[in-house]
Design brief:
CATH class: Alpha Beta
Order of helices and strands: EEEEEHEEEEEEHEEEEEEHEEHH
CATH superfamily: Mitochondrial biogenesis AIM24
Strand order of the largest sheet: 5-6-3-10-13-8
Number of domains: 1
Structural class: alpha+beta
CATH architecture: 4-Layer Sandwich
Strand content: 35-45%
CATH topology: Double-stranded beta-helix
Number of helices: 5
Radius of gyration: 23 Å
Largest sheet: 6 strands, antiparallel
Helix content: 10-25%
Distance between the termini: 78 Å
């Protein structure tokens, strides 16, 4: 199996499959592939041996079903394109060397990857639209590819060294790093500071990958340029009013 990451702002991961190779991802994630690549959709993969394992993976931001890609008749190629501007990172997962990744960060992985709930906390509607904060735990013996938003900044934390991070900027960290979610200090900071009620505390030892682009911030930046339902309704009402006025004018001659 050979993997190549092409591009900068919106990178593409291309994986060359040999006979016997297997790639796992969520359904509908692939961008293109050669004709001899075969797909198998199943819930019992990525570490899930039963329906409860699959449900736990779904709650952690993954899918109830996953898709396995293989090329049983020889060589094949499959490509995965980034969904948002950012980077695709290749990660070697080994026993005792797992990772915690942000919800939706898992792009794909080789056979032997295991995904499950790592952390979940409700942060309130004011911070993440009521969806809360979720981390996936990535374990097993495999190679995985993780998608992070925007630029990626890494820190190697020494034992006892701590870093305070806005939850949305957490991309990935080694599972040797201790993770805790705490209330923002100061009532005025929490209520009026605009940074939310909670802040993440990461304590070493271990490596941390932070992402500069978060989906809530991206959505907030694009929101003023998107059409709104109210405007559409006002337009429809205006058109309906003009039609009704024309009909009445025709009936009464005014």
């Amino acid at each position: 199996m050979q993997a190549k990451i092409t591009g900068t702002t919106l990178p593409v991961l291309e994986i060359g499959l040999e006979q016997g190779d297997l790639i796992v991802s969520e359904p509908g994630e692939f961008s293109w592939m050669t004709e001899n690549v075969q797909l198998k959709t199943t819930a019992l993969t990525a570490g899930a041996n039963n329906i409860f394992g699959a449900l736990g993976r779904m709650v952690a931001g993954g899918g109830l079903f996953m898709t396995e890609y293989s090329a049983p008749q020889g060589k094949g190629l499959i490509a995965f394109a980034a969904k948002v501007p950012g980077q695709i990172l290749q990660v070697d997962v080994e026993p005792g060397k797992g990772y915690m990744i942000h919800r939706g960060g898992f792009l794909c992985g080789t056979e032997g990857i295991s995904l499950k709930m790592g952390f979940q906390k409700s942060l309130g509607a004011g911070m993440f639209g009521g969806n809360g904060f979720v981390l996936q735990q990535m374990e097993g013996t495999a190679t995985a590819w993780v998608e992070l938003g925007g630029e990626v900044v890494t820190y190697d934390l020494a034992a006892g060294e701590a870093l305070q991070v806005h939850p949305g900027h957490i991309g990935m960290f080694q599972d040797s790093v201790s993770f805790d979610m705490r209330f923002m200090k100061g009532i005025a900071n929490a209520l009026f500071g605009g940074d939310g009620l909670f802040i993440a505390h990461l304590t070493g030892p271990g490596k941390v990958w932070l992402q500069s682009l978060t989906l809530p911030n991206l959505a907030s930046a694009l929101e003023p340029y998107l059409p709104h339902n109210n405007a559409a309704q006002d337009t429809q009402a205006g058109v309906a009013g003009a039609v009704a006025g024309s009909v009445l004018k025709g009936l009464f001659g005014k």
